[in-house]
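Methods — Computational structure assignment.
A single polypeptide chain was analysed. Its primary sequence is given first, followed by the predicted tertiary structure written as structure tokens.
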Amino acid sequence: LTEPEHAPAGALGEVYRAVAAVRMGASLETAVPHLAENLEAAAPDSTVPWLDLAQGQLSLQRWADAGATLGRVLARSPGNPLAREWLAIALAGRGRSGEAVELLRELLAEDPDRPEPRFNLARLALARDGGAEEAAGHLRRVLELRPNQVAAWHYLGEAHLALGRPVEAADALRRALELDPGRTDAYLRLADALVALDRRDEALRYLRHGAKVAARPEELQAKLAALEP
């Protein structure tokens, strides 16, 4: 669904405009409810704008709203893999991780080479006690499929840290920072890995650099203050 040069009048036109705003990530707090209201009024046949609505709701962590929207999509298109994947995210957000894992595993059984459900399974495993090894396995496969996925490198570093493998963690986190030098959490966790390796000076160098370029420099300044002599 793309906004035509001249959007239709009425609620459907508002749907086109709201979808464009949601896709740009612009003013989601107002664009998402505006889209929801006009979708109800316009009742388009396509499921695409409903998926846009769900994506906006997920971005705002409105898990129950997203689940309801995705339920509507799946009522029309029961096998839709994207809707099922996002429903798993909404379920996990509501604390229903077991159902989320079951749904993601169903998706992987249907298409083992689809990286998105595998990545989300890894994140759920990493949040669970004793799940770091499973997470690392999923993330390695994700990176075989998508070598430049920054978040996968970051969470692989997290998994290695949880498993007491600081060398492997540092390698993965450096790769994340090569791909995205502004990723604050990667600097923080890389510093943890380097300190575990008794390489405090190197950790400080990364933190000082990150404090100049990262998205949340204040977090790196706080880490520096804690580590500096």
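Note: DSSP finds 13 helices and no strands in the chain.
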